[in-house]
């Protein structure tokens, strides 16, 4: 099985998309991450859901998880409000990483190796002109790999 066989349409965001809108998209569609595209719709990077959380969770709670326990429940339940006014650009790590993209001919093993190496829950599948053809999620890859 090749990437072209597993690739499915996948939502995208731009660098200017609000972080709160990205979080809503992740939650509403139960996605592991989002593909960030440029103005021409070409993939720039993958935004894992954990990166959105990293921006929403107060730094002091990330550094010392015990501090998260002292926040009362009513305020703790609204931590995502911290995303207000921030953009997808701010969610991305400071150091660029290898872009988890592949061509339509990649095998399941090639995609698995790319996901493992880049620690990405999805791989963007692109054509010759870097046009986004779809994405393969970790779940879709494992579902196929575990078929017997």
UniProtKB/TrEMBL annotation:
Residues 9-57, 98-146 form the CBS domain. It holds the Pfam family CBS. InterPro entries: CBS_dom, CBS_dom_sf. This is CBS domain-containing protein.
């Amino acid at each position: 099985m090749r990437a072209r066989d597993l690739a499915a349409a996948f939502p995208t965001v731009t660098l200017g998309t609000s972080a709160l809108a990205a979080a809503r998209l992740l939650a509403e569609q139960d996605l592991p991450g989002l593909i960030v595209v440029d103005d021409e719709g070409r993939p720039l990077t993958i935004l894992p859901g954990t990166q959105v959380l990293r921006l929403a969770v107060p730094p002091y709670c990330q550094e010392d998880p015990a501090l998260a326990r002292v926040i009362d429940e009513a305020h703790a339940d609204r931590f995502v409000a911290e995303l207000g006014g921030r953009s997808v650009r701010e969610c991305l790590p400071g150091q660029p990483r290898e872009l988890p993209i592949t061509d339509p001919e990649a095998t399941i093993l090639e995609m698995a190796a790319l996901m493992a190496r880049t620690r990405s829950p999805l791989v963007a599948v692109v054509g010759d002109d870097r046009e986004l053809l779809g994405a393969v999620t970790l779940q879709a890859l494992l579902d196929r790999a575990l078929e017997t």
